[in-house]
Design brief:
By secondary structure, this protein is of the alpha/beta class. The chain folds into three domains: about 110 residues, no CATH class; about 200 residues, P-loop containing nucleotide triphosphate hydrolases (Rossmann fold), CATH 3.40.50.300; about 70 residues, no CATH class. The chain is built from 16 helices and 15 strands. The strands form four sheets. A seven-stranded mixed β-sheet has the order 10-9-12-13-14-11-15, sandwiched between helices. β9 and β10 form a beta hairpin. α3 crosses α4, α13 packs parallel to α15 and α14 runs parallel beside α16. The longest helix has 27 residues. The protein binds adenosine-5'-triphosphate (ATP) and magnesium ion. The site of adenosine-5'-triphosphate (ATP) has 15 residues, from α7 and α15. GO terms for molecular function: ATP binding; ATP hydrolysis activity. Pfam families: AAA, AAA_assoc, AAA_lid_At3g28540. InterPro entries: AAA+_ATPase, AAA_N_dom, At3g28540-like_C, ATPase_AAA_core, ATPase_AAA_CS, Mitochondrial_chaperone_BCS1, P-loop_NTPase.
């Protein structure tokens, strides 16, 4: 009978088709009969960063064992016995893990493509026994998430990312900024309230979920140059141990590009957009830009080329509180500006940026903090004179810091600082006199 069927098939179906059918049949049969199951975890999930991939990436280096045959190692600092090089998993290297009696095999794979961005697509393959599939989902993945969370909470190095338009990827550098809340010169009550706001933000995941809000917090830092806006961003990153994504809005060619850029950032991070008043020149009303171009043929540094659709303000705002904002958790978004009054009112409307922080000129309390930082002194007989002068002279913390760095001899530095303030006060008085006459 079987012979008969085979003969009929041979006569009816061309050889090529027969080969195709039999290869598909064997493929299907081997999959059904195999006792193995494979999980695939891609770097991106439904167009955004895949947090499961990040968790596995953090977890696997803790599972390097005798069966591992290669490793990536590297360091951002000169090696010393107290800080051995960091380890990471190379492509195609197999990592074996055992969990609650299950045998689990991991491999990191990578495929290159010329057709899509990013050019490299990475994914993890996890093989286990088919009979363990449910246990892997219910117990093993939660175990990975918990372990990764505690590793990431303790991360000893922070990164700052900048977006590279050429490769359409965020590029990272180690972030080592010394600014902390302790070193910042600002009003103690303001500092305290920012720290409390951050503390309550990171611990209130359930609250955000309960009230149906995305777990995000927006800060607008404004004030004159040199008053510590960037230093405050660094202090926040150091305090929360969050990486920073430093976005130049001009590096996005269109709203959809911006969407790609923003969805490639990871959780527990700060999205920083500095000088938003300059960035939103691009983002302002297109027709206004055209009008401006007709009026003035000068090259505008912040403007994209005329063939470029550019980023619109609404594209940016969609991320702040639109539907896209619900992609990703535990994000802090910080805008800085020297000119709050120049910002589009849409950015300032209540509820858009949760906290507005004014970073102002140096106060008496600010000066005392800087004197402690730079000269290591908490009090000095000349402080009263200086504090008196500071009431009438506007000087930025950056200027004060520059003066205090002139020497490490407090007496000489403070006297020269008094002269500097007196000079500034005299200039102000001269100008006031001119205006009156
Ligand atoms: N509030 C401050 N506390 C401590 N140091 C400060 C403060 N403000 C400024 N400085 C010092 O001045 C330098 C410049 O400050 P920073 O870059 O933070 O100012 P900024 O407000 O971001 O200025 P810009 O508007 O030009 O970007 C810092 O590196 C720091 O040394
Ligand atoms: Mg700055």
């Amino acid at each position: 009978m079987a012979m008969l069927i085979r003969t009929i098939l041979n006569e009816m179906i061309p050889q090529q088709m027969q080969n195709f059918i039999s290869s598909k049949f064997f493929d299907l049969a081997s999959r059904c009969l195999s006792s193995d199951f494979t999980f695939i975890i891609e770097e991106r999930w439904q167009a955004v960063n895949n947090e499961t991939f990040r968790a596995v990436e953090a977890y696997l280096p803790t599972r390097i064992g005798p069966s591992t045959d290669s490793l990536l190692i590297g360091s951002h600092e000169p090696l010393n016995p107290r800080s051995p090089p960091k380890q990471s998993i190379p492509v195609d290297c197999k990592i074996i893990d055992e969990f609650q009696g299950m045998h689990l095999e991991w491999t990191l794979r990578s495929i290159e493509s010329k057709n899509y961005f990013p050019r490299e697509k990475r994914y993890f393959r996890l093989s286990c026994k088919k009979s363990n599939r449910d246990r892997v989902m219910q117990s093993y993945f939660p175990h990975i998430t918990r372990t990764a969370e505690s590793i990431l909470n303790k991360r000893d190095t922070l990164n700052i990312y900048t977006y590279d338009q050429e490769s359409s990827m965020w590029e990272s550098t180690v972030f080592k900024h010394p600014a902390t809340f302790e070193t910042l010169a600002m009003e103690p009550e303001l500092k305290q309230s920012i720290m409390e706001d951050l503390d309550s933000f990171v611990t209130r995941k359930d609250f955000f979920e309960g009230v149906g809000r995305a777990w995000k917090r927006g800060y607008l830092l404004y004030g004159p140059p040199g008053t510590g806006k960037s230093s405050l961003v660094a202090a926040i990153a150091n305090y929360l141990r969050y990486n920073i994504y430093d976005l130049q809005v001009q590096s996005a060619r269109s709203d959809s590009d911006l969407r790609h850029i923003l969805t490639s950032t990871t959780n527990r991070s700060i999205l920083l957009i500095e000088d938003i008043d300059c960035s939103t020149k691009v983002a302002h009303d297109r027709t206004k830009i055209q009008d401006d171009q007709e009026d003035d043929n000068d090259q505008q540094p912040n403007r994209l080329s005329s063939t470029d659709p550019g980023v619109t303000l609404s594209g940016l705002l969609n991320f702040l509180d639109g539907l896209w904002s619900s992609c990703g958790d535990e994000r802090i978004i910080i805008f800085t500006t020297n000119h709050k009054e120049k910002l589009d009112p849409a950015l300032l409307r209540p509820g858009r940026m949760d906290v507005h922080v004014y970073m102002g000129y140096c106060s008496a309390a600010g000066f005392r903090k800087l004197a402690a930082n730079y000269l290591g002194i908490k009090d000095h007989y000349s402080f009263a004179t200086i504090e008196n002068l500071l009431e009438n002279v506007t000087v930025t913390p950056a200027e004060v810091a520059q003066q205090l760095m002139k020497s490490d001899e407090p007496e000489a530095v403070l006297q020269s600082f008094i002269q500097f303030l007196q000079m500034k006060r005299n200039e102000i008085q001269k100008q006031d006199g001119k205006q009156e006459s």
